[in-house]
User: Fold this.
Amino acid sequence: MEPIRTAVVTVSDRVWQGQYADRSGPRIRELLDARYVVVAAEVVPDERDRIEATLRRLSDELAVELILTTGGTGPALRDVTPEATLRVCDRLLPGVAEWMRAESLRYTRLAVFSRAVAGIRNRTVIVNLPGNPKAISELLPGLRELLPHAVGLLRGGKHEL
Assistant:
């Protein structure tokens, strides 16, 4: 299988403003293996319109096959990544978000507050990851094994039984 063209989008006001170093985006890139090639890594503020525009551009213009966002998935007032993702997706992948919450509950009860979603825009899979690098380390190894199946189907492949 050809490497999956991937974009990583960090959603954080403080990282975007330069107040903090981005630790989440680089952690995602560290955990991806040779099946993935990161062709874009961006930082955007916690603003729904900016997040939506970034997701649309990466999917529509850059034609990435996978977008992994990090940050903005909790209950805070400025956490709007799920809303932005829902607005740009054509179809949802609710099982992915359900799996992430269930997996996170193995590590912390606070996982019940995750509002992360996953979906598809055109031929691009979009998955919201938490903003915490530790949580990313707990979730991404399992996701890394699952996502090639969805991307393969979007490429026109067949279901594997």
Remarks:
- The mean pLDDT is 97.
- Residues 93 and 119 are 5 Å apart (CA to CA).
- The longest helix spans residues 133-154.
